[in-house]
Amino acid sequence: MTKLNTSIRGSLILAFTTIVLTLVLGYSVLSARYFLDGMDTIVADNLMRAAITAASTEKHNDIRDRDINPAIK
User: Fold this and answer.
1) Which of 25, 55, 64, 65 registers the highest number of CB atoms within 10 A of its CB?
2) Half-sphere exposure for 71 (CA within 13 Å, toward CB)
3) Distance between CA 48 and CA 42 in Å, rounded?
4) How many C-beta atoms lie closer than 10 Å to residue 31's C-beta?
5) Is residue 62 within 8 Å of 55, Cβ to Cβ?
6) What are the tens digits of pLDDT across the range 10-68?
7) Alpha-carbon distance values, 45 to 40, 48, 59 (Å)
8) Direct distance between the N- and C-terminal alpha carbons of the chain, in angstroms, rounded to an integer
9) Taking a C-beta distance cutoff of 8 angstroms, is the pair 63, 51 a contact?
10) Helix segments in 1-73, DSSP class H
11) Residue 62 CB coordination number (10 Å)
12) Cα separation of 55 and 48, whole Å?
């Protein structure tokens, strides 16, 4: 068996590097998730605004008044 020559300096460098890489990876994943959630919210709000505008310009009182396919009745 070979004896590993570990030093306090090497152990600290390894520990700090591991902590830093873990934090960078964690915050990167978290920020990507918040970014995608924000984009999803923006798209949903714009779709709702477009549906409300379309319903109000065609004299519908409610979005549910619009039929998806008026040929099927």
Assistant:
1) 55
2) 0
3) 10
4) 10
5) yes
6) 899 999 999 999 999 999 999 999 999 999 999 988 888 888 887 777 665 555 555 55
7) 9, 5, 21
8) 83
9) yes
10) 8-57
11) 8
12) 10
pLDDT of residue 54: 77
Q: Is 55 exposed, middle or buried (0-12, 13-18, 19+ CB in 10 A)?
A: middle
- Identify the residue whose tokens are 């008026």: 70
SS3 label, residue 69: coil
Residue labelled with tokens 């090497």:
10
> pTM of the entire structure?
0.56
| Cα dihedral 14/17/22/23 (nearest 10) | 140
- Quickly tell me which residue has 């779709």 as its tokens: 47
Q: Which residues contact 67 (CB under 8 A, 6 or more apart)?
A: 73
